[in-house]
Amino acid sequence: MIGSSEVKGYDVIGDTVNTAKRICDKASGGEVLLSENSKRLLEGGADFGEPVQIAAKGKAELLTVYKLRNIVTKPV
Question: What are the domain boundaries of the chain?
Fold first, then answer.
């Protein structure tokens, strides 16, 4: 929560949020790019493109991202 006693608001801030914004900014229309950590969480449940290195404002090193190709659905 941020603000004062008269005005309050909620927001998310920090390096993770900034990094996610930079990755989203690099995606084309209709494209979903995932960080290495997000890809790891979806392993076995999605199909990904080859890794791509992108430059991101505020980052000294290139970020590795993956294009999400397809979500794998399993029968219930």
Answer: 8-71
Binned at pLDDT 50, 70 and 90, residue 44 comes out as confident
Q: What is the mean pLDDT of the chain?
A: 90
DSSP-assigned letter for residue 19: H
How many Cβ atoms are within 10 Å of 34's Cβ, its own excluded?
Answer: 20
* Six token digits for residue 60: 């000294």
Q: Which CATH superfamily is domain 8-71 in?
A: Nucleotide cyclase, GGDEF domain (3.30.70.1230)
d(CA 60, CA 44): 31
